[in-house]
Amino acid sequence: MESHESTKEPTAYPEYFDIPRADEEGMPTVMSVVSGTATTETSTSMKRQQTVMDMLTGPQGKNAFDPSANKLKPSPASSTRLDASSSSGTIVTKGFGVERLDCIPFSMSGFQESMTDEQRDLLRLECESMGKSWLKLLRDEIKKPYFLSLKQFLWEEGLKGIHDTPLPLRVYPPPKDIYSWSNTPLGKVKVVIIGQDPHYGRGQANGLCFSVPLGVAIPPSLQNIYVEIKGEYPGFTPPEHGDLTAWAANGVLMLNTCLTVRANSPGSHYEKGWEKFTDKVVDVVDKYGGANLSSKLAQADTGLGRGVVFLAWGAWAPKRVAKLDKTKHLILTSTHPTPLSAYRGFLGNGHFKAANEWLERKYGSEGTVDWCTLN
């Protein structure tokens, strides 16, 4: 959980209450590099068996040793496939059962027409403020009973739409900022930073984990993040603010596990449904994160996710990404940047530079993140 500060009340940081846990001590740093070897070997073995069978039985009407039978075929490890019936190698819209991101249709009006009146009312905020590259993949999720129950709970808490939520706010962040993380287009995601729940003080939360709006004091956890970046990039000059929207514009998805919190009540919206929803967000990133990044690979590989970097700090965050394929993504873990645990593994972890080195190998120099520019 990030730190939180209020300009009118004594400073209180939920990280002091919640983050340091026994299982956090000595948490190792994990760095995984894409290989895809297991998938390739399994497929190759199957093709080898089929080739031997063809040699024994012989294809009807053809010589069993016809050179055309030995032509190189696309590896299933690649992100897309070629149309076997096309001599020109036309790219199809699906890659081994997963539809390409740019080929998934979405109509906002059609989506709204598909809802009941109650759903349309409860989901008005999502339709108004969630980034469309995310909404088209989460549209079925937000119509599920658990999410509608979550929205009903939030209505009872005083959170409705952008324009009809009564003041003063009783839930943070403001309605317009709850989905501000989704302003980073799905296909442009390079790095995911996992947080817990938003800052609970008035005016502190802006919908991006660890971030605060301009004019709000920099939380201690973010101060330690700046210290670590300075250690990895000596030319970095820490800004005098804690607004991380420049990272979001550069492909960093800053996702809290719980997207709302009751004012002055840390953890108050846990186990209401947000955890299940943000797990689905992580699943979507697993499939499509970075799908529209340029790559050293062939153009045929765009449209499907080829791996991103996950920064999971503390005891909480690694559990959210434990199911991900470590051969596809780079998953970096350490203790949390809170002052209570930063010295036990966060400071000196090298995560920001390690993330960029991995991204550059995979996507080229344009695939890296400028951690040092926060203007």
Mean pLDDT, to the nearest integer, reads: 81
Report the CATH C-level class: Alpha Beta
CATH homologous superfamily descriptor: Uracil-DNA glycosylase-like domain
| Rg on CA atoms, Å | 23 Å
Q: Helix coverage percent of residues?
A: 25-40%
Give the biggest sheet.
4 strands, parallel
Distance between the termini: 24 Å
Q: Indicate the CATH topology.
A: Uracil-DNA Glycosylase, subunit E
Number of strands: 8
What is the approximate shape?
globular
Number of separate helices = 12
Coarse structural class: alpha/beta
**What's the order of the H and E elements?**
HHEEHHHHHEEHHEEHEHEH
Low-confidence runs of at least 5 consecutive residues: 3-93
Q: In what order do the strands lie side by side in the largest sheet?
A: 5-4-7-8
Number of domains: 1
Give the name of the CATH architecture: 3-Layer(aba) Sandwich
Query: Which percent band covers the strand fraction?
Result: 5-15%
Write the layout of secondary structure elements.
Elements: H1 15-18, H2 37-57, E1 94-95, E2 98-99, H3 108-113, H4 117-122, H5 124-129, H6 132-138, H7 145-157, E3 171-172, E4 191-195, H8 220-232, H9 245-249, E5 252-256, E6 261-262, H10 274-288, E7 309-313, H11 317-320, E8 330-334, H12 351-363
